[in-house]
Write a structure and sequence with these properties.
alpha+beta, five-stranded antiparallel β-sheet, five-stranded mixed β-sheet, 27 strands, 36% helix
Length: 921
């Protein structure tokens, strides 16, 4: 380096040169430009950030419009004794709201200590917490601690619903969350914020809020929690799944110790309290605990309560079905039902007792699957299409969906699915379920109130919610003879068309119409003249059809409507030309059939003195604040039968159980009444009956209605259930109080009239019986059915004066004995069981022709009438011809003036009579 004088002069010249000065100025200028540009970037960026921040703030919800209260509350369902039987909750709604004064202070402090230690000091955001979290993030290279306050968490859960956010969305939400947290604390107290928070948080296992968690984990009210239990619950909220005290007790224990330590450090508890809480082995109390969540399977009863309440909310409040469902599953309702859970358990146990069912296991295939075709379209298949494919496409008429081997069933399913996948499609969905068969339904109502006490929609495991309920209108089946008291006998008694003593000829009889069908009984026999009581007791078909024909099917239909049968089809609403105003309605030949609960309610009306009460599944519904939403305690009722009619019908139905087709339903302790019903081929079996306290119906059959029910005594199952329930209730033996207007009178069972001298002389024994009547429908005429006749032993015709070998008999006068139908008619193959003891009007005029032609007959009073075979004398004796003419006229008059004991005409016809099921029992 040259530091001499000359060097200094040269350096000075260089610095002062114009080139150097230009270069310096240019450098300074560039620096200034860069500085200005940098400042501009900083200022511009700041403006952009500020603008974006301002935009985010301005787009935040208005603090005056937001609602930080929880969005959904669990609905509780209670039985008739006020015991909780079910929780209904949609996702995130399994909570029960409690106020802060109901929540232990220890639990409040536990959450504050672990989640937001400066909760009572900050204004909504915790600046210290934010700085600490940021420092830890820089040190550890990631976020290991959150800085959200309880206020922010409340906003996050109930205002922002922050789930599955992107990074940008999370930043935006965090800014708005902090802004609103500050705002919220200016309009809401700390206590209100904490109360809403403690009722909102997810505490695992489907529990939301501290009350649901206390009940779920510790089976106690939140107010009863101990300090150690409070710490367990407060530990969950950081990770509801990973810190679940049932599934991960060790992890929850570590967090619990941290909660207790924080409480000790922050002065909420003493060292002694800390030691006691740590020493409490709270997790031992949780071992083996079975957790029931809102996803559990509802009972058939609860299923129907949901259906009924949905309908009522739509009808009474104008809700849509979705709105009603949202309220039921998330509105925090309290539903008080009529179910008696002890009675329900009795019925369920007996119905599922394998000793009541065939030893061979049968089940039906319940299948659904979806095929995605190669072109992207989807096709849907089920067990119904499977049945069609096997029986029609393959022509296998023996195929049945009811199987006894799961291996065989699975092979059939595989064969069908492979056929549907033959074009290259793929299986995108499949559901296979095997349902035990035969199936059953049972319902029981307290007739005095209409309260449904028991509902069984099927036997076997119930695998889903709101599934097929065979006890309600989900399923309708033909009722068989169980409909007779409702459609024929009850209405006919009520209108005065018959009495219990009315004699009806159980003989071959056709439905009306050009293409009519012969009415047959269950055993294809006919028993002849019988009373209405006897016809009901042994369940004969012909008398029921004749009675309905007498009052007309329209009248019977109208009564069924009043009895609450909801499945009727009127002529104006005919389905493929079929409706229910037909003669075959007397035997249960219905277009749609009936549902179990309708039959129970109808029989309950008879038991209730003729007053129908609409079935009630719940008495009251309260909203989340305890206000009455629906009051169902007042029953909807109307009279169907006169009180006297109901009592008379009850008397007849009592005979069914004591002497008829339903003796297996009888049990000691209560007078049981009821009626059996069996459809053609035994595919449906019913018993509908009642005691003085409860009415109940049972149905047994196969779901696909294709198989005969064998080896199942459904009436005995009914009796077992009702007897066990009677033992449980301890009810005193009841009775059916006889109302005013009932009288008891002796009558002839072959005519239904007052007895004559001949009635006691019937060859089968006296036909004089004592029967009950409504006082306005007591018989007044004397029996004209019994006649005394003298028969020629040689000719078998009515004896005349010349007959020397005769027999005098007391016979019943009928329209027909063996039936006058032609040989081509199927009815010609039948005779009535009383044919040997009966005579027709035609036979009364069939005099002996092989002896002297003067007849001797005796009328019903026993007075002998005879004529001489000689010409008329001066004393006025008639000639033989005059005598015969006179006798024929007398006989004809006797026949035409006699009150007919059977109904043989009809004012109604319908082709559906041709397909009516023959029913009995």
């Amino acid at each position: 380096m040259n530091y001499g004088g000359r060097g200094i002069i040269d350096k000075k010249k260089l610095l002062n040169s114009s080139a150097t000065k230009l270069e310096t100025k240019l450098g300074v200028f560039c620096v200034k430009i860069l500085l200005i540009f940098a400042i501009a970037i900083v200022v511009g960026g700041s403006c952009l950030v500020f603008g974006a921040f301002q935009g985010i703030i301005e787009s935040a919800p208005d603090i005056s419009t937001i609602d930080v209260s929880p969005n959904g509350y669990a609905t509780k369902v209670y039985d008739s004794n006020g015991e909780e039987i079910q929780t209904l909750a949609s996702s995130g709604a399994n909570r029960t709201y409690v106020t802060l004064d109901q929540i232990p202070v220890e639990l409040q402090e536990a959450f504050v200590a672990i989640e937001d230690e400066r909760f009572y000091e900050h204004n909504g955001i915790d600046v210290k917490g934010i700085i600490r979290a940021a420092a830890i993030a820089v040190t550890n290279g990631g976020l290991s601690q959150g800085a959200s306050t309880i206020t922010q968490q409340l906003l996050k859960n109930n205002v922002f619903n922050a789930y599955n956010e992107t990074t940008i969305e999370k930043i935006k939400r965090k800014i708005q969350e902090q802004y609103l947290a500050v705002k919220l604390e200016t309009v809401m107290s700390k206590d209100d914020i904490l109360e809403n928070y403690l009722n909102t948080i997810n505490l695992g296992n489907g529990y939301y809020g501290v009350q649901a968690a206390a009940e779920g984990y510790f089976n106690k009210d939140v107010s009863e929690l101990t300090l150690s239990e409070c710490a367990v619950i407060a530990s969950i909220t950081k990770n509801p799944q990973g810190l679940n005290p049932i599934n991960y007790p060790d992890k929850n224990r570590s967090r619990q110790i941290q909660v207790l330590s924080n409480m000790l450090e922050q002065g909420y508890i003493t060292q002694a309290q800390y030691d006691d809480a740590v020493a409490d082995d709270v997790y031992a109390r949780l071992e083996g605990l079975t957790i029931t969540t809102s996803s559990s399977t509802y009972s058939y009863f609860v299923d129907e309560v949901i259906e009924q309440l949905t309908d009522d909310l739509m009808e009474q409040y104008g809700y849509t079905e979705t709105q009603a469902s949202n309220l039921i599953y998330g509105g925090g309702l309290q539903i008080y039902t009529t179910q008696d859970t002890d009675m329900q358990e009795i019925a369920d146990d007996i119905i599922n007792d394998t000793s009541n069912w065939p030893s061979s296991t049968q089940f039906s295939i319940n299948l659904s699957f979806t095929v995605k075709e190669t072109d992207g379209t989807y096709h849907y298949y089920s067990h119904s299409t499977m049945y069609t494919w096997f029986t029609q496409t393959k022509g296998d008429s023996s195929f049945s969906l009811t199987q006894t081997s799961e291996d065989k069933a699975n092979s059939l399913i595989k064969e069908y699915e492979e056929a549907m996948l033959a074009d290259g499609g793929t299986l995108s969905y499949e559901s296979i379920d095997f349902v035990i068969q035969p199936q059953v339904s049972f319902s029981m109502i307290e007739q005095s109130t209409g309260y449904v006490k028991v509902l069984v929609g099927g036997r076997g495991d119930k695998t889903g919610n709101r599934t097929l309920n065979r006890a309600t209108d989900d399923v309708t089946r033909q009722p068989g003879s169980s409909i007779k008291p409702l459609v024929a006998y009850g209405p006919a008694l009520d209108t005065g068309a018959i009495t219990l003593a009315t004699a009806i000829d159980d003989a071959p009889y056709y439905y009306s119409g050009s293409d009519s069908k012969l009415v047959t009984n269950y055993d294809k026999s006919y028993r002849g003249l019988m009373t209405v009581r006897e016809a009901i007791t042994i369940s004969e078909n012909v008398p029921a059809v004749k009675v309905l024909t007498l009052i007309t099917p329209q009248v019977g239909y109208n009564y069924l409507e009043k009895f609450g049968i909801s499945t009727l089809v009127s002529p104006s609403e005919a389905i493929n030309g079929n409706h229910d105003v037909v003669q075959s309605l007397a035997l249960g030949g219905m277009t749609r059939g009936v549902c179990n609960i309708d039959m129970t309610a109808a029989y309950a009306a008879i038991a209730n003195g003729g007053v129908y009460t609409e079935p009630i599944y719940y008495t009251q519904v309260l909203d989340s604040e305890g206000n009455v939403l629906i009051d169902n305690t007042t029953s909807n009722t109307h009279r169907v039968l006169k009180e006297t009619t109901a009592w008379l019908l009850t008397s007849a139905l009592r005979s069914v159980v004591t002497n008829g087709t339903a003796t297996a339903a009888n049990f000691s302790g209560q007078p049981v009444c009821g009626k059996t019903g069996t459809t053609q081929n035994d595919t449906d079996k019913w018993f509908c009956g009642y005691t003085p306290y409860y009415a109940a119906s049972i149905w047994v059959g196969y779901d696909d209605n294709s198989t005969k029910v064998n080896n199942v005594n459904h009436t005995r199952i009914w009796g077992k259930i009702m007897s066990a329930i009677n033992d449980y209730t301890g009810d005193a033996e009841g009775s059916y109080e006889q109302p005013e207007g009932i009288v008891q009178t002796e009558v002839c069972s072959k005519s239904g009239e007052l007895p004559s001298d001949l009635c006691s002389q019937d060859e089968r024994g006296s036909t004089i019986i004592s029967e009950y009547f409504s006082e306005d429908n007591v018989p007044t005429e004397t029996c004209s059915t019994h006649v005394k006749v003298t028969i020629c032993n040689d000719s078998g015709a009515i004896a005349v004066a010349g007959c020397t070998s005769t027999t005098t008999r007391i016979l019943t006068l009928k329209e027909s004995v063996t039936t006058p139908l032609g040989a081509s008619d199927d009815a010609s193959n039948y005779t009535t069981a009383d044919a040997a003891y009966s005579i027709t009007a035609d036979q009364l005029t069939n005099f002996c022709t092989i002896h002297s032609n003067t007849a001797t007959t005796t009328d019903s009073s026993g007075t002998s009438t005879g004529t001489s075979s000689s010409s008329t004398s001066s004393s006025g004796t008639k000639t033989q011809q005059e005598t015969k003419s006179s006798e024929e006229e007398s006989s004809t008059e006797e026949t035409t003036t006699k009150k007919s004991s059977s109904s043989s005409s009809s004012n109604s016809s319908n082709k559906s009579n041709n397909s009516a099921n023959s029913s009995n029992n």
